[in-house]
Structures
1.
Amino acid sequence: MGKLAQRFLDPEKSGVYRVSGAGVPRTAAREAGLALLEVSLDGVADKDALLRQFAASLGFPDWFGGNWDALEDCLTDLSWHAAAGFVLLLPGADTLAALHADDYGVLIDVLASCAQYWRERGVPFFAVCDDPGGALVLPALFNEAER
């Protein structure tokens, strides 16, 4: 098992990270046996579209309320995705940050809160923002030695 897959299995390392290209984390999540979830943020025009994209991509239940609190509620439940842990890939995060900085900031706060929730329960949860240009102010998911 690769170093990144091993890292994905450690709930203490749960958090929100950036990566340039989703291929490596995609492979590592599969290798680790974690649920691989993906929400494309490309072309998201506003908060409502962002929340709809999450709901549609992750198959949120009917009770999803379409607001930030409801997003956090769903991401800290995920009972409809039975898994030992979760890797949430977010392609287009860099574009969202550039065009809708406030919504991006709230989203990162929500994701960090969810990672903390899962960490406290001993379940890995990694939100991985695709950032080809390296512009996002987030820790890098891995360095080349961890591939």
2.
Amino acid sequence: MADRALVIVVASGAAWEPAVLARLGEHPAIVVLKRCVDVDDLLAAATAGQADAAVLGLDSPGLDRSAVDLLRKHGVRPVAIAPGGATLDGGRLRAARIGITRVVPEDDLDAVPGAVLEDESPETVVRVPRPGVPPPPPTGPRSAGRVVAVWGPAGAPGRTTLAAALAAESARRRRRTVLVDADPYGGAVAQQLGVLDEVSGLLSAARLAAAGQLEERFGSVQRGLDDRLSVVTGLPRGDRFAEVRPGTVEHLLEVARAQAEVVVDTGFSLEDDPGSEYGTRPGRNHLTLAALEVADVVVAVGGADPVALSRLARGLVELREVVGGRPVHVVVNRMRPTLGWSERDVAGMVGSFARPAGLYFLPDDQPTVDRALVAGRTLAELGDSPVARAVARVADGLGWGVEGVATPRTAGRGRRR
């Protein structure tokens, strides 16, 4: 039990507010520090570092996983007031999904002071990974798949093309696969694969995650291309990145990994925004950083020309600082004899500044890539080609076995052009 607790109250005009304030005020070990008008006011007060606990309505607008995570970051224990009676179980379920472990029903307000003063043990706290902080080690049953993040430096090295090709190759090998577009500068997966749905799967996932419903409604944020491959489409415009709050990408990828192999198309920048530490507005690159933090394997792609290779070299050094010891496979895209050097030459150059888990080369097969792009199809759907065979070798290196390989598909079930 704590000796003394400074409490913030957020009621948004709820009927229980006067009774809670009276009970807190009567307790000798509790001081009501502030009454906040809404969740944004609460988060601003929490950043001051003075409060120990927050008593708030479970239905307060804006109360979601990222808000709870920010409270805990500043040492504030959330205590939720939920409707009693038959709806209490549903309230406790939603509270658990957004990370609140202390729930007091409206018909038992005498328990509020005790809930405020009771310390939370580390085992009871629901922790949400944050950008820049490694997620806790997985526990429980082994996941159904892995998260493969496709990253590449600036200059359009072919991130989206490779991510879509790898996801299609995984599905061709009879693996349930989800392709996630997490590019914070505006997703291109939907356009590349001819998905005409106007609703962004990533923004839909963000809304469901905030409501604690993403796991049970995960199917609604996907668009099926066939019986094994589905897509979570990205941002319709780059300026809407702020609608994806911290913790959303991590939660989305964990849910997807429990059901399938996951391939993520990320952005290019690895810079964190220090301003995101002082409020709920995330930095622009938090989508990329979050995907890399969750990823089991990273595939870094760069071009084969001198400028692209220089960018790849610098990027791999920065990437290693983000992903630590997790395996990084390097793909050199658009390799062509007119450049004047061989694969051996490029491999020696890459090996001088990085020790990748695997090094692969994709040929400059522009006619095949153009046909796939114009038709809104994956490389696997176009049949055999030099670039498709090269992508298959990357899939082999990632450990996706070749047993039971299906013939290339010619039709999908999604709404495609």
